[in-house]
């Protein structure tokens, strides 16, 4: 048994912090690696040592095995934990770690090879007798062969990256005419995310549940399963809500799926933590989907219902220790649900968001756990996955866990960057979810565009924002006037002062009249509505009631959350200084990213809806389409270049009638 004395975590964000906390509890020195974009990130500040590994883009830092190994050498690490994502399922990296004489806290490279390739893993599972979805996983990667295979399987089909995971490199294809585009986008996304553009096809099982089994094996071949997680609530094939146990799995079904997962692990001589994923249909039949040869994002729900620390078990097994448990020792107690907090805009097709986190204050309480990797003042980078944190709640039963999770989300303000927090609460409140009926079609069936769009600020939000702007200007005036008593603020010899505060949000401008009415008390008039606002420390009262407002004032901006809705307001003096106007023919980047494709040239005619370009951001491919008809009058961006949100990509000169 070789003890781990110093552990380098080859990852970032919340998973790096989560691994480091357990390692430090075990008395192990922890080492962080970081890119330039993460120089002041929480995982770097937490570690005992930290090593820079390159610029912001993952391909120039976190995905460079040699940089990671050099960091281990210079910092004195004798073990590396890969976390999830990045190099965690890269067999070549696992081999290099072991060849360097270091302990790899993960499965053997051969097992990663066997399961990291979806085509090979499916062949292995068929041989092992594990039920599999009908599909195509052969070596011929020509479009012609895929078209023929899709016809044989029958539409709809799923196009999948063979080396992929996390929903990347996946496209649902409903009809033959969609297959060419689905193949092209899946290849491009897979090559970018995994370095391989090999694809497979699978029969699309519509409205299935996505159930996965957590398994664990030691170096002696002892393997157990730790129950299931239901990961059916997904958007764009990426998980949003996970829970354990599944409301749709009976004890008999759990035993059958668990045994199939154990057989899958034994077939490849697996060691460590792994997850075998299945799709289940309405009849209760289940089919092997893939095996993730790493720790899963959603592992906390398993920890909360089993009482086990999976990272501690990973470390023990990597040191050569036996599991010291049998299947009978593992019991599930209560229920746990996890929500993934993403920097994204649900109203814009879940487009990843970037920007500065003005305020992050995670909730705490009985049965609540928050795994985060962010802090107030931190910039959300365009270079990485948009997940910011995970909020998990446990309860004696599912309903208690659900209610606790809603309360924890509502009590965890995240201001300054667009997020899916409100959307997560909406999911948990839907009857289909609360009654345990959610399938992978849940979001598309339950949510309309109106549900996903951020609501416009109401009169109360406008009143609060106006008072905060007013208070900010008063504070600034007081700070610039030494010797003036704070008691003289708002005093006037002519009676009450009425101040019109002008500010704007992303949609329109607003003018609110603010009148001081006492110490830290104000009357705000929004149109014909008058609202009483009182400020007591950090609490804001609205019409005599504690409004439950989270807020932060940052220079010319006010960020606030009210009734679960986030708003950002900016003083019009600043807005006027920035020319935000633009032609309808301006095609701008919707987010920071790399321009990977450009489908038009100067002078080319386009119609509304035509594909213009593809932008890669946060490991996903985003198509940019024309909003008007016309001709391309100018092209400003170059393929392969990094461009910022709002940067001009090209201009379209509108045809008559489209001005």
TrEMBL record:
Xref: Gene3D superfamilies: 2.40.50.100, ATP-grasp fold, B domain
Lipoyl-binding domain sequence ranges: 577-653
Keywords associated with the record: ATP-binding, Biotin, Ligase, Nucleotide-binding, Transit peptide
Record has Ligase as a keyword: yes
Entry-linked SUPFAM superfamilies: Glutathione synthetase ATP-binding domain-like, PreATP-grasp domain, Rudiment single hybrid motif, Single hybrid motif
Domain ATP-grasp: 122-319
Cofactors required: biotin
Keyword Ligase among UniProt keywords: yes
Signal sequence segment: none
Pfam family membership, one: Biotin_carb_C
Molecular function GO terms recorded: ATP binding; ligase activity; metal ion binding
Ranges for domain Biotin carboxylation: 3-448
Name assigned to this protein: Geranyl-CoA carboxylase alpha subunit
Native species: Sedimentitalea nanhaiensis
């Amino acid at each position: 048994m070789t003890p781990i004395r110093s552990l380098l975590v080859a990852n970032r964000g919340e998973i790096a912090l989560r691994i480091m906390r357990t390692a430090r509890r075990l008395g192990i020195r922890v080492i962080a690696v970081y890119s330039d974009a993460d120089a002041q990130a929480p995982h770097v500040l937490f570690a005992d040592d930290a090593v820079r590994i390159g610029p912001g883009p993952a391909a120039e830092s976190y995905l460079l095995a040699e940089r990671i190994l050099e960091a281990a050498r210079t910092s004195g690490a004798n073990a590396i934990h890969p976390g999830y994502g990045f190099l965690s399922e890269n067999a070549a990296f696992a081999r290099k770690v072991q060849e360097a004489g270091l302990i790899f806290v993960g499965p053997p490279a051969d097992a990663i090879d066997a399961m990291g390739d979806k085509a090979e893993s499916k062949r292995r599972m068929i041989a092992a007798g594990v039920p599999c979805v009908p599909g195509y996983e052969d070596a011929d990667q020509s479009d012609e062969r895929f078209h023929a295979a899709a016809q044989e399987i029958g539409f709809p089909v799923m196009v999948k990256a063979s080396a992929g995971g996390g929903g990347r490199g996946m496209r649902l294809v409903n009809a033959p005419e969609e297959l060419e585009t689905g193949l092209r986008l899946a290849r491009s996304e897979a090559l970018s995310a995994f370095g391989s553009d090999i694809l497979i096809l699978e029969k699309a099982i519509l409205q299935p549940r996505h159930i996965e089994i957590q398994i664990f094996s030691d170096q002696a071949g002892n393997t157990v399963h730790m129950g299931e997680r239901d990961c059916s609530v997904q958007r764009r094939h990426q998980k949003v809500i996970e829970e354990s146990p599944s409301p749709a799995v009976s004890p008999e079904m759990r035993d059958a799926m668990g045994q199939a997962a154990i057989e899958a692990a034994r077939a490849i001589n697996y060691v460590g933590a792994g997850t075998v994923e299945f799709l289940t249909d309405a009849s209760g039949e289940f089919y092997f989907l893939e095996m993730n040869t790493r720790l899963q994002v959603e592992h906390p729900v398993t920890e909360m219902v089993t009482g086990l620390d999976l990272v501690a078990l990973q470390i023990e097994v990597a040191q050569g220790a036996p599991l010291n448990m049998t299947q009978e020792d593992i019991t599930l107690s209560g229920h746990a649900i996890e929500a993934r907090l993403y920097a994204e805009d649900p109203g814009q097709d879940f487009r990843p968001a970037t920007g500065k986190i003005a305020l992050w204050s995670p909730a705490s309480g009985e049965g609540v756990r928050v795994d985060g990797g962010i802090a107030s003042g931190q910039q959300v980078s365009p270079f990485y996955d948009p997940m910011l944190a995970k909020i998990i709640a446990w309860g004696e039963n599912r309903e208690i866990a659900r209610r606790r999770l809603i309360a924890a989300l509502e009590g965890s303000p995240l201001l300054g960057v667009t997020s899916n927090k409100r959307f997560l609460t909406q999911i948990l409140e839907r009857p289909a979810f609360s009654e345990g009926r959610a399938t992978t079609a849940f979001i598309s069936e339950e949510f309309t565009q109106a549900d996903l769009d951020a609501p416009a600020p109401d009169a109360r939000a406008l009143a609060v924002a106006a008072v905060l702007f007013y208070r900010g200007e008063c504070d600034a005036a007081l700070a610039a006037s030494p010797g003036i008593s704070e008691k003289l603020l708002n005093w006037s010899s002519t009676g009450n002062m009425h101040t019109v505060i002008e500010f704007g949000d992303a949609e329109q401008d607003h003018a609110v009249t603010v009148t001081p009415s006492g110490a830290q008390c104000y009357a705000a008039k929004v149109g014909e509505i008058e609202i009483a606002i009182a400020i007591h420390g950090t609490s804001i009262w609205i019409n005599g009631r504690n409004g439950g407002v989270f807020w932060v004032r940052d220079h010319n901006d006010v960020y606030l959350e009210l009734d679960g809705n986030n708003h950002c307001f900016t003083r019009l003096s600043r807005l006027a200084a920035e020319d935000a106007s633009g032609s309808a023919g301006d095609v701008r980047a919707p987010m920071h990213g790399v321009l990977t494709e450009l489908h038009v040239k100067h002078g080319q005619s386009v119609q509304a809806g035509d594909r213009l370009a593809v932008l890669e951001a946060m490991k996903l491919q985003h198509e940019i389409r024309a909003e008007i008809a016309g001709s391309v009058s100018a092209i400003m961006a170059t393929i392969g270049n990094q461009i910022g949100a709002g940067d001009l990509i090209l201009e379209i000169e509108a045809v008559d009638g489209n001005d």
